[in-house]
Design brief:
- The protein is built from four helices and four strands; from the N terminus they run ββααααββ.
- About 60% of the residues lie in helices and about 10% in strands.
- α1 (about 15-30) runs antiparallel to α2, α1 (about 15-30) packs antiparallel against α4 and α2 (about 40-60) packs antiparallel against α3.
- It has helices spanning about 15-30, 40-60, 65-75, 85-105, and strands at about 1-5, 10-15, 110, 115-120.
Length: about 120
């Protein structure tokens, strides 16, 4: 006889944790070094890390995080930079870093070889 059970935390892993954490750090560093002329480098790093997180969110089927992190990738796109500045752009850095940290925690994927059903 088989019974169903809830999946435990050990059956999941967070593949986007490290790139999302690095994305958040990059965005905070970008906020702190805006006056040094590092915007292009920060945009390249942030966009690349955001796209990596999008791929992991796609694999984990976390559609909300795909949209949220894809928006970060678009806003920090170095190929077609959007002319943002001022307090609004500073707030966008903080908001995007917060979104990245949330994605690091909530994008999770079931480990291979685990099932939700347990046999008795």
């Amino acid at each position: 006889m088989t019974t169903t059970r809830r999946a435990t935390a050990q059956e999941y892993f967070r593949p986007a944790f490290l790139p999302a954490l690095l994305l958040a750090v990059t965005l905070v560093v970008g906020l702190l070094t805006q006056h040094l002329g590092t915007a292009t480098v920060i945009r390249f790093i942030a966009c690349a890390l955001a796209l990596i997180v999008v791929v992991f969110a796609w694999q984990a089927r976390s559609h909300v995080w795909i949209v949220a992190i894809a928006a970060v990738a678009v806003l920090w796109n170095p190929a077609f930079p959007l002319p943002f500045s001022g307090v609004g752009w500073d707030a966008a850095h903080v908001l995007a870093a917060t979104i990245a940290m949330a994605a690091a925690l909530f994008v999770r994927q079931r480990m291979e070889g685990t099932s939700v059903r347990a046999s008795r």
